Model the fold of this input.
Amino acid sequence: MHMFFWSVKKKTVKELRKNKSMTARELAQKLKLDTGEILKIDQMRLRDVPEPLQALITPVLTEDETDKIPWL
Done:
C-alpha cells in the first residue's frame, strides 16, 4: 500500500481525476469547492497541493469506493 500511495502522489491532480473519469466540475461538486480551485491545482502533483486541500482531494482520487469518505 505504501508504494502505491507514493506513486499516486507523483501524479498530477488532472491525471488522477481523468483516471476516475471525473471532470473538474464533478470533483469540485463532490468536495463542495469552487471549480476554479480545482483548475488552479489541476497541473500540480498531488504531493505539491497545499495541505488542507490535499487532505480533501486524496481520498476521492485514490479510493475506489466513495463510501469511505465521511463528508459525502
The first helix runs from residue 2 to 9. Helices lie at 2-9, 13-19, 24-31, 35-41, 51-62. The CA atoms of residues 18 and 29 lie 15 Å apart.
